[in-house]
């Protein structure tokens, strides 16, 4: 069991005007409320298969994705509902996808782990640990060869750094000077395996730095620090046209998936980390500096809940694909078969 | 009119043409640039097109095949050379879990217009880890198209068709074929067809169904059989996925006997799949049980006599046909 050395909760002034400050809070609330409902719907067997919740980690996707432009690419993992949502995939399409319905963002073929969206350059929804990293390097190579200034943000968990794909992609990205923002969401547990039980070197930045990559480690529970750092890192990637490795230290409050009995960590550890919760600590900071009233908070929360209600109604109302269409989309339409 | 050309030169011409005609195309792989290609296929292309478009990679199959998929998603038309099929096992994950599945998993939103070339096969005394024939494994996977050019014409033509395909295409080049030579017709239309098998020799007594490096062996066997009064028809599958059932069944129905020749191991092989399809679709047209000549179930050994004994050979094919026909050796 890992030691219960939990850092102090994020604190201090939020250096943003009310619109941005509230937008960040709204983003985190939208993810949180959507996923809380997803967990309920899983209990009702409306959502099946694997469901990996991001609850507790919302500041990471929120802070990073707001540092990107529409031309950038995003590659994420199987714990990607929040990333898809904030990238611009509609909550109704995400919810319908989790239901497996035809109006889902992947026509229902992918489910929770395989959210995709061409319009927002959201490339999944990659459910092989580490599998997204070489893809991200390739997307960045295409941008570089095409003379575009876009970057590719690639999210992955700390478990992925044990995969060869991490090392091969880091090497390629640095060797070929590819504009990739590597975002390592370090939530301390790769499924049930604590970092120290799986890595000889637990300093993840040291691993990345061995490829000559610039690295930075931030408190992933602090949306302010995440966003400010991501802005600088993204600017650095664009300016120099080479990768930056960002470690975002965070914590997953829920089980790995809905099948996980959480035998590998103590209840007290989870509770201790909850004192650092990204939403309530940020809310308290905004209130303390007079940037947010309780009424404003309740209004943002109510809006998020209403969006969830509408998304669930949409998913419920969406049709199942007919079995006659089973074999579609194995090959592209202009291909043979 | 036709031109005499080697299989290697035909591949190189096809690569050069694709690099010249489409700015989205680039070639990457281990030793494709400075070294000139492990089998000298890409020799001279680095000088002609520069290091951005003829890109040497680290020994990093998982990484650069995955990067090829990403580049294809990003609008490029990468040609990834994996040195040999043996090393492609290090890239099975991106090929199967990403390239083959992304179109479906994304509900048809993303396509992966990627071409992966690799050498396959045995016969050069390079021992077990460099002698595998795994093209049949890849032919198992929905979402992939698998090609096996066995002639200079297909070596020259199939790449263009593969690049025009919006989905991932794997091209297997048998290592024994690089030095082979043949006539390249002026009309390349036939090779641009990447959906059909081809009758390489007409016959009426038995269908020899094969692909890649086994095609020359099957043709030699047919020649020998002809001297014994047996007219063998030789089918070159060319496309291992999707299989062209129609051409195979038409031949089997005509000849009423079939022998599959496949350099892969017998168990779970492409030969096994073809035999199953023939049994399903043409059982009542057969005059004899189906037969096959595959590799023996042993890692390919180093000494020449043992390697030869492990692989399909002309005499084994002839003997298999004679047994079917009830003719003594």
Description:
The complex is a heterodimer of chains A (337) and B (329). Chain A is α/β, with parallel strands linked by helices. Chain A has a single domain, classed as 3-Layer(aba) Sandwich (Rossmann fold). Helices cover 44% and strands 11% of the residues of chain A. Chain A contains twelve helices and eight strands. In chain A, a hairpin with a 2-residue loop joins strand 5 and strand 6. The longest helix of chain A has 26 residues. The radius of gyration of chain A is 20 Å and the shape is globular. Chain A starts with 17 loop residues before the first helix and ends in a 20-residue tail after the last helix. The mean pLDDT of chain A is 96. Chain B is of the alpha/beta class. Chain B folds into two domains: 191 residues, Rossmann fold; 128 residues, Rossmann fold (3-Layer(aba) Sandwich), CATH 3.40.50.920. A seven-stranded mixed beta sheet of chain B has the order 3-2-4-5-7-6-12, with helices on both faces. In chain B, helix 1 packs parallel to helix 8 and helix 9 packs across helix 13. The longest helix of chain B is centred in the N-terminal third of the chain and has 15 residues. Chain B is globular, with a radius of gyration of 20 Å. The model of chain B has no long low-confidence stretch (mean pLDDT 97). At the A-B interface, strand 2, helix 5 and helix 6 of A face helix 3, helix 5 and helix 6 of B.
What topology emerges from the helices and strands here?
The complex is a heterodimer of chains A (337) and B (329).
Chain A: H1 18-43, H2 58-65, E1 73-76, H3 81-87, H4 91-99, E2 122-125, H5 132-145, E3 152-157, H6 164-175, E4 180-186, E5 189-190, E6 193-194, H7 195-198, H8 204-209, E7 214-219, H9 223-240, E8 244-249, H10 267-274, H11 278-288, H12 294-317
Parallel strand pairs in A: 1-2, 1-3, 3-4, 4-8, 7-8
Antiparallel strand pairs in A: 5-6
Chain B: E1 2-6, H1 7-21, E2 25-29, H2 45-49, E3 54-56, H3 61-73, E4 77-84, H4 85-88, H5 92-99, H6 102-105, E5 115-120, H7 135-138, E6 145-147, H8 152-164, E7 169-174, E8 181-185, E9 198-201, E10 206-210, H9 215-227, E11 232-236, E12 239-241, H10 245-255, E13 258-265, H11 270-282, E14 291-295, H12 304-310, H13 314-325
Helix pairs in contact in B: 1-8, 3-5, 9-13, 10-11
């Amino acid at each position: 069991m890992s030691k219960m050395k939990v850092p102090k909760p994020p604190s201090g002034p939020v250096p943003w005007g009310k619109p941005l400050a509230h937008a960040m809070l709204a983003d985190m609330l939208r993810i949180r409320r959507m996923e809380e409902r997803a967990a309920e719907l899983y209990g009702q067997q409306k959502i099946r298969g694997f469901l990996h919740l991001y609850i507790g980690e919302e500041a990471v996707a929120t802070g990073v994705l707001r540092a990107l432009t529409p031309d950038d690419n995003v590659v994420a993992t199987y714990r990607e509902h929040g990333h898809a949502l904030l990238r611009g995939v509609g909550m109704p399409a995400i919810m319908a996808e989790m239901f497996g319905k035809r109006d889902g963002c992947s026509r229902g073929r992918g489910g929770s782990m395989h959210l995709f969206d061409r319009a927002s350059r959201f490339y999944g929804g990659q459910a092989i640990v580490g599998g997204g990293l070489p893809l991200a390097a390739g997307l960045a190579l295409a941008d570089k060869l095409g003379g575009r200034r876009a970057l590719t943000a690639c999210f992955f968990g700390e478990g992925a750094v044990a995969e060869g794909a991490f090392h091969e992609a880091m090497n390629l990205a640095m060797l070929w000077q590819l504009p990739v923002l590597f975002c390592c969401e370090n939530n301390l547990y790769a499924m049930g395996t604590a970092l120290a039980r799986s890595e000889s070197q637990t300093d993840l930045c040291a691993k990345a730095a061995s490829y000559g990559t610039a690295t930075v480690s931030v408190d992933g529970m602090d949306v302010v620090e995440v966003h400010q750092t991501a802005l600088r890192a993204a600017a650095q990637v664009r300016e120099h046209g080479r990768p930056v490795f960002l470690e975002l230290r965070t914590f997953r409050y829920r089980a790995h998936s809905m099948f996980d009995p959480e035998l590998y960590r103590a209840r007290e550890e989870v509770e201790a980390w909850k004192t650092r919760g990204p939403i309530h600590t940020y809310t308290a900071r905004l209130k303390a500096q007079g940037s947010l009233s309780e009424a404003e908070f309740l209004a943002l929360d109510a809006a998020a809940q209403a969006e969830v209600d509408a998304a669930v109604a949409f998913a419920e109302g969406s049709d199942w694909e007919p079995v006659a269409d089973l074999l579609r989309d194995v090959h592209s339409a202009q291909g043979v078969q | 009119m036709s031109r005499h050309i080697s299989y290697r030169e035909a591949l190189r011409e096809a690569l050069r043409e694709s690099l010249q005609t489409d700015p989205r195309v680039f070639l990457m792989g281990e030793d494709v640039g400075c070294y000139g290609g492990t089998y000298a296929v890409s020799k001279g292309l680095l000088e002609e097109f520069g290091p951005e478009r003829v890109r040497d990679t680290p020994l990093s199959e998982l990484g650069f095949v995955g990067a090829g998929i990403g580049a294809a998603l990003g609008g490029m038309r990468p040609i990834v050379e994996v040195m040999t099929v043996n090393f492609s096992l290090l890239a099975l994950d991106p090929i199967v879990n990403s390239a083959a599945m992304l179109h479906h998993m994304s509900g048809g939103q993303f396509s992966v217009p990627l071409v992966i070339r690799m050498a396959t096969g045995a016969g050069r005394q390079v021992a077990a880890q460099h002698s595998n024939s795994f093209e049949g494994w890849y032919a198992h996977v929905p979402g992939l198209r698998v090609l096996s050019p066995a002639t200079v014409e297909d070596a020259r033509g199939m790449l263009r068709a593969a690049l025009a395909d919006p989905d991932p295409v794997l091209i297997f080049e048998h290592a024994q074929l690089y030095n082979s030579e043949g006539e390249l017709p002026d009309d390349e239309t036939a090779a641009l067809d990447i959906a059909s098998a081809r009758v390489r020799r007409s016959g009426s007594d038995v269908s020899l169904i094969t692909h890649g490096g086994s095609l020359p062996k099957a043709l030699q066997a047919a020649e020998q059989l002809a001297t014994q009064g047996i007219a063998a028809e030789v089918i070159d599958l060319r496309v291992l996925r999707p299989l062209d059932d129609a051409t195979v069944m038409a031949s089997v129905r005509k000849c009423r006997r079939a022998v599959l020749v496949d350099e892969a191991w017998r168990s779970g092989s492409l030969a096994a799949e073809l035999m199953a399809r023939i049994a399903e679709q043409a059982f009542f047209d057969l005059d004899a049980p189906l037969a096959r000549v595959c590799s023996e179930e042993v890692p390919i050994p180093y000494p020449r006599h043992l390697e030869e004994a492990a692989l399909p050979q002309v005499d084994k094919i002839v003997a298999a046909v004679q047994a079917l026909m009830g003719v003594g050796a």
